[in-house]
Amino acid sequence: MSTSGTYHHGDLRQAVMSAALDVIRDEGPSALSLRDLARRAGVSHAAPAHHFKDRAGLLTAIATEGYHLLADALAKPPGLRERGVAYVRFAIAHPAHFQVMFQPDLHRGDDPRLTAAKERAAAELSAGVASLAPPSARASAKAPDPRTARIAAWSLAHGFATLLLTHNLDDPAGDRDPAEVFRSLAGLLFASTEPQGARE
Predict the structure, then answer these.
(1) pLDDT tens digits along 6-37
(2) How confident is the model at residue 174 (pLDDT cuts 50, 70, 90)?
(3) Considering the entire predicted model, what is its pTM?
(4) 65 closest CA partner among 26, 111, 32, 23
(5) Does domain 1-52 sit in CATH 1.10.238?
(6) In the chain, what are the domain boundaries?
(7) What's domain 54-198's architecture?
């Protein structure tokens, strides 16, 4: 299929990305081929290279989009536990993005757009960590160290999401809602420090 008269400039780029996400979801990032993606998207074989230059450029664009989607998801809930739930739900809804985002060997880590997207997502996670203690306690010994708390929160949400996507929780979680299972796990670590108003 010719690209002329079928795709607008932005549509063609998105068509290639959508085809790539399908491949990653079904077969993993290693199965990506720009020529195959052009065929799947119904565009000329040169179209992917025109928009992304090479495979790393395409994966960088996917990771960038993923971090922006994650930042959007984390911005909505008020407290840390619900932001963790949002993280898990993001992974379930966007498994291909999730696979690519956290494999730095797949994309260009110095890409300024990727860096900005990662910083957005990190800022939203940090905002959730800030809700762990009330303002009066944040400067005292009762307040958790923000860096350590952020690592703990990220490790819990990311680890749970990874185990879920790789079907390692099929038996332990059974048919329970993953969000409810995660809330229970998060409660074991953060229930004593997260303000009541930050929970849903």
Answers:
(1) 444 458 888 899 999 999 999 999 999 998 98
(2) confident
(3) 0.83
(4) 111
(5) no
(6) 1-52, 54-198
(7) Orthogonal Bundle (1.10)
